[in-house]
């Protein structure tokens, strides 16, 4: 059994050595595609953790592929064990068009409870988004982040829920506020491989709004240290991906999202 586990680990390490060049290619592609086209309206397909790593610099890249496409690049820093601030730039593309700079956002995280001290870890998220095109509405988003570890059938599982409220502002704003729901449950098998399931919902709060939209699908999370890739430096690469299917409302029949995050303890 020990021999089998060692062989599996060696195979995973060999696979992990491929991630560095792949990440470099993805980031290079993202830098090149800042090109042409129109704005695309996209849901916020991302799971946010309430846990903050103090003194850690994070460079995060989020890609969403469906009929429309988005590429969001973020720089975040944990100033303490309760405060993290970040800035992001978003590229977007409508079907049949290339990418174009779409918006800039400032965001903040507050960790309200020490990790593992209470029944669940709780945090608060807030974001102000300023769109690139004149006349498009700005947006304010805020809400709680909740996360809990649960032993289940001899396995460690991690469950995260985000319940965010968003409201457009400015002359171009239309409609009532909305609630953005995001939930993830995953099994923590090994750091390289944590499979699970994700759900996203977009619900209008009030009359005369859009029909609620719901997505659901399998996901995968993993983490590889830089030293495991042969780089003598602290930190590592966190990656996660999900394939989401429409289960209600007018949205893309299927959507693929992937996130690659580079972590640098300072």
Description:
There is one protein chain. With 266 residues, this protein is mainly β. The chain has helices at residues 2-16, 19-32; strands at residues 56-65, 69-78, 83-93, 100-111, 121-131, 138-152, 155-169, 178-187, 194-204, 213-225, 236-248, 254-265. A hairpin with a 6-residue loop joins strand 5 and strand 6 (138-152). Mean pLDDT is 84; it is low at 11-41.
How is the topology of this model organized?
Blueprint: H1 2-16, H2 19-32, E1 56-65, E2 69-78, E3 83-93, E4 100-111, E5 121-131, E6 138-152, E7 155-169, E8 178-187, E9 194-204, E10 213-225, E11 236-248, E12 254-265
Antiparallel strand pairs: 1-2, 1-12, 2-3, 3-4, 4-5, 5-6, 6-7, 7-8, 8-9, 9-10, 10-11, 11-12
Q: What keyword list fits this structure?
A:
single chain; 266 residues; Porin; twelve-stranded antiparallel β-barrel; 12 strands; 11% helix
What's the short version?
The chain has 266 residues and is mostly beta strands. The chain is built from 2 helices and 12 strands.
Can you tell me the overall shape? globular
From the helix content, strand content and strand pairing, which structural class follows? mainly beta
- Total number of strands: 12
* Rg value: 19 Å
Q: Can you tell me the CATH topology?
A: Porin
State the share of residues found in helices, binned by percent: 10-25%
The span between the termini is 39 Å
Tell me, what is the CATH class?
Mainly Beta
Mean pLDDT: 84
* Name given to the CATH homologous superfamily: monomeric porin ompg
Order of helices and strands: HHEEEEEEEEEEEE
Alpha plus pi helix count? 2
Tally of discrete structural domains: 1
Note the main sheet: 12 strands, antiparallel, barrel
